[in-house]
Design a protein that fits this description.
This protein is mostly helical. It has 3 domains: 72 residues, no CATH class; 72 residues; 105 residues, Tetratricopeptide repeat domain (Serine Threonine Protein Phosphatase 5, Tetratricopeptide repeat, Alpha Horseshoe). It is 62% helix and 3% strand. The strands form 2 sheets. Strands 1-2 form a two-stranded antiparallel sheet. Helix 8 runs antiparallel to helix 9 and helix 10 runs antiparallel to helix 11. The termini are far apart.
């Protein structure tokens, strides 16, 4: 006597296939599972490629809902429809949400910090900072991964300090812990693209005077070129360090300019005029830093 694992029908003359599904359920599940696979592929593609953190977060929730449903409807009944199984995929993507949340909060905070930096009045500055602070209290901004939790805490503390003290500079909140490990998929890449593909985006951000966003991106690209250098035994690309140095000089952040140029000095060098030019810039930056305020 056969019993269908999905619908539960049984009978002496009920035929089931190797998955122990009756013909009706086998046909229905084939269509449903194919549609689920299409949704999962689409969600995964947008999570990896979209530049909009809100889109990425929405697609993550869609992907998780589909996998949870597949786990309940199929895997729990012993029906294998995808490999790895839905439960294994749910475990695999568990950390994705926090990484997306980190990107989302940082992008929204950076936008408000830009507004605060350009504000003509104290009231406008305060309004932008209050908006930035409110992002941390939203349900979709809560994280569980320790690295992300610590990074978000650092960012929130900085914004709160800006609200409490008008004399503090807008720029310079801690970023070293914001992005958890795994944000760079392969040495030399950031979010699936080689660091050299971001040159136009960096130039456009600088042209629009979006220096907070430019700095955030450049720090990731510096990490990417250093990872590639370590993996392949080649010199780092100097342009990204130089872009950061220019931004820091423009913002009057002499200590940060010296730090990023010294970071470059400690790396293997690629051939060209970059090393000597940045060495000269480092000496000038040190001179500026040593001047009395």
């Amino acid at each position: 006597m056969g019993t269908c694992r999905y619908c539960g029908r049984s009978g002496l003359f009920l035929k089931t296939n190797r998955s122990r599904l009756c013909s009706a359920c086998n046909r229905a599940l084939a269509v449903a599972v194919e549609n689920d696979k299409r949704i999962l592929d689409d969600c995964q593609r947008l999570i990896r490629q979209s530049k909009n953190p809100d889109t990425r977060l929405s697609r993550f929730h869609d992907m998780r809902r589909v996998l949870q449903r597949m786990q309940e409807q199929y895997e729990a009944k012993g029906i294998e429809v995808i490999s790895p199984a839905p439960s294994a995929l749910l475990t695999e993507i568990a950390g994705w949400r926090d990484r997306i949340v980190c990107d989302r909060v940082q992008a929204r905070v950076d936008k408000e910090l830009d507004k605060a930096a350009k504000a003509k009045t104290t009231k406008t500055r305060g309004k932008a900072l209050e908006a930035a602070l409110s992002f941390f209290d939203e349900d979709d901004s809560r994280a569980t991964e320790p690295t992300v939790v610590a990074g978000l805490h650092d960012m929130r503390t900085h914004v709160a300090a800006l609200i409490a003290d008008d004399s503090l500079p807008i720029y310079g909140y801690p970023r070293s812990r914001l992005m958890p490990e795994g944000s760079t998929s392969e040495p030399g890449t950031f979010r699936g693209r080689h660091y050299s593909e971001y040159v136009a985006q960096v130039e456009e951000l600088k042209r629009q005077d979006k220096l907070v966003q430019a700095e955030t991106l450049l720090l990731e690209l510096v990490a990417a070129t250093e990872a590639e250098s370590k993996a392949q035994g080649i010199g780092v690309a100097p342009a990204y360090y130089e872009h950061l140095a220019v931004i820091y000089r423009k913002q009057g952040r002499a200590a940060d300019e010296v730090a990023v140029l010294e970071r470059y000095e400690s790396q293997p060098k690629a051939p060209g005029v970059g090393p000597s030019r940045l060495a000269e810039r480092l000496e000038k930056a040190k001179t500026l830093l040593a001047r009395p305020a």
